[in-house]
Amino acid sequence: MESRNREKKRKRREILEKKKAIDESLKAASAHKDHLTAFPSFRQYERNGLSVHLESGCGDKLSSAEKQYILNLLKANMEGPYGSEWPAEEKVKRREMVASEARYIFARELDAPSASASEMSKTNFAESKGSIVGFVHFRFCLEEDVPVLYVYELQLESRVQGKGLGKFLMQLIELIARKNRMGAVVLTVQKANLLAMNFYLSKLRYVVSSISPSRVDPFTGVEKSYEILCKVFDNESKALLQE
């Protein structure tokens, strides 16, 4: 009886220690404002006719121009896939965009004005450091007791798509996740966004997560307009998010 109690205490202690370690990892990752400092080679992307510089940002520190650019690009890229759901979804994204826990990586094109950005808004984004041509919005959070880097948005202007920049940004995201001891990268994709589904599933080898509606309940999940995808980094995360 005594040995059984000792075993229970030991297991309880292990659970608490694990929870504490996860909480500390999430807190440390979220406190870091510029995750690019750990990966200086990723600050520049020069391939396929693009010359892009990456920089970090925080949701509660966005300039008015950055906020307007994000909203314009979201509408340009996502109004179609969301369809009738877009007006409500746009309101949600407006709130998510400026949250203090929101972290950004902005891609700025060097030595070239952003024609499509200027078309989308009269706001002048052609700063001396370059015009924004896309961004990633991500956060560190808990999913099914797994610390994850959740990609809220990966958005690129149409004219810079298909040139490897999206893949480059996701490779960086995965490195940031691993460095900060996250168990996986998780993201949500609209089923109607066929190009994005193919990009993540085929090119980047993400999988439909076990927490995605279509896997939680195939009968009701088919009615949902989105899938939750993931890429896991260890067996424990795989058991909770993939299998």
UniProtKB/TrEMBL annotation:
A single cellular component GO annotation: cytoplasm
Signal peptide: none
Catalyzed reaction equations: N-terminal L-seryl-[histone H4] + acetyl-CoA = N-terminal N(alpha)-acetyl-L-seryl-[histone H4] + CoA + H(+); N-terminal L-seryl-[histone H2A] + acetyl-CoA = N-terminal N(alpha)-acetyl-L-seryl-[histone H2A] + CoA + H(+)
Database matches in PROSITE patterns: GNAT (PS51186)
Domain N-acetyltransferase: 71-243
The protein's enzyme class: transferase
Molecular-function annotations in GO: histone H2A acetyltransferase activity; histone H4 acetyltransferase activity; protein N-terminal-serine acetyltransferase activity
Stored CDD domains: NAT_SF
Entry's localization field: Cytoplasm; Nucleus
Keywords on record: Acyltransferase, Cytoplasm, Nucleus, Transferase
Source organism, top-level taxon: Eukaryota
The keyword Transferase is assigned to this record: yes
InterPro entries listed in its UniProt record: Acyl_CoA_acyltransferase, GNAT_dom, NAA40
EC number: 2.3.1.257
Similarity comment: Belongs to the acetyltransferase family. NAA40 subfamily.
Entries under PANTHER family matching the protein: N-ALPHA-ACETYLTRANSFERASE 40
Protein name (record): N-alpha-acetyltransferase 40
Organism (species): Citrus sinensis (Sweet orange)
